[in-house]
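Friendly challenge for the regulars: who can give me the structure tokens for this chain first? No prize, just bragging rights.
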Amino acid sequence: MSTHTQPGQQNRIDELRSTLTSDFDRHTARLTELTADTGDPAEAYTRDALVAETRHSLEQITGALRRIAEGRYGICERCAAPIPQERLEVLPHARFCVSCQQKQH
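First reply, four minutes later:
Bragging rights claimed.
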């Protein structure tokens, strides 16, 4: 899904952008709730973990939206090969193809 989209791909990209934007809004609201100080020190550890997880999700969503805007969505950042549609359906924020992702670890 690069800048040269085929018919039907643009609809998929538009739907994905809408879904990612909704996810971004939902995670932002969650982060706002999580960072509100409840004054309960027993909840601090759990809350900190949830805040870190939510921030990570926001970073992934933001990155995917940026790649869409730049016309780089669906292209592996390491080898520049197309990321399979099946992978993007499961992980819409995927930055790497499966082969390159395995090399990252």
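The first helix runs from residue 9 to 35. The chain has one domain: 9-104. Your move, everyone else.
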